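Our preliminary data section would be incomplete without showing what the modeling component actually yields. Below, a chain of 434 amino acids is followed by its predicted structure, encoded as tokens that our downstream tools consume directly.
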Amino acid sequence: MITNPTIPELSLRLRNLEESFQSEFQQYLGVTSQGSPPQNLQATQVILKEITETTSVRPGMVYVFFAPPGGDENFSSIDLTSQTNRVARDTDILETVVITGTGEPVRVRLPGTTRRQVVQVANNFRSEVTNFRSSRGFLNPAQQMYKWLLEPLEAELQKQGIDNLVFLMDAGLRSIPLAAMHDGKGFIVERYSVGLMPSLNLTPLDHVPLEGAQVLAMGATTFGNSGLNPLPAVPLELNNISQLWEGVEFLNETFTLNNLIQQRQNRPFRIIHLATHGVFNPGDRSNSYIQLWDGRLRLDQLDQLNWGNPPVDLLVLSACQTALGDKEAELGFAGLAINAGVRSALASLWEVNDAATLGLMTKFYQQLQVTTTKAEALRLAQLAMIRGEVRLEDGNLVTADGLLPLNEELRSLSNLNLTHPYYWSAFTMVGNPW
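Predicted structure:
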């Protein structure tokens, strides 16, 4: 049900939402605000207009949240920052609000669509997408999530020519594969680039081009007694990146915390690529970590690396996994860019087959050289996999640019169907998507 609250009412509701989301992430991550947050609805729209002027991309901010039943009568009076109203109740009602650079915001409230229903379908959606043995099992939940989150907004999105969707999500929805939502004809990533933002107030919102950026690429193939799976494609992954972008690569025993710190001190790398496991576990953020060759870098240690000086524009973690249906694990994943002190982070929601990751990352870094935004580079890489333009064939990784011979450990994987969303939809642009 589309409703038409006044601009002051909507502005107040969004301010409440922002304060609520911001508080959640700050409490979990132990961080403070990172930039110059917009103070009101109009300021947000000015920022979105500026993004369009500098990138030609037309973004839409999509807030997805749950509110107490009966809130429609007093739309602006429900304080979502209050402890009472932020208690998660199964009966809370799903609402969405989309803000664009031009035109009035649109708010949709779906009476009868409860938190319990939506979170249950969201968890099923992710579970089905990760079942790569089922070719179409994901379609029903993928289409249901689309019908709830986007279908009511489509007329306005199309009217304004929106081509980039930035989702700001409530608890329970921050670890779904957004790009794999399906409108019955195709995946939403076929029409929109997609990003996940924890909170406007915690995210630097301007656009900084990556032209001339250097890449620090590090990773490991094995991880000792950690119990983590080996990543045999990492040498090829690092080599491909270093051929596409100026920078340096370090593999295995040189992938240490001391060397990471040293290299950052030596050169102002604006892109850091870590081809390794990132694990987002339930509980305190010290339970979650990035695996290095010589040990774990815990999430609560990330801010000690001072990645804001000199600034890091993009952190890539190519083999992450996030606990399904856990609020703290979601906060760790969705708050990765904030926690690390970087503008944007590209990470996976689950551990994807290593050969598929090699394909996506190769295409992503190629597109990053020619597109204006990071989210669009990711979209084009995902599209290449959906369309079979990036595939495994006869022991080779096939891309539009030619064949890349795979090493012995990867050649047996040539029968994988990389068009399945399991292989591409886990990868999510977190933080500033531009």
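Residues 2-202 form one domain. Residues 7-29 form the longest helix (23 residues). Preliminary results of this kind motivate Aim 1 of the renewal.
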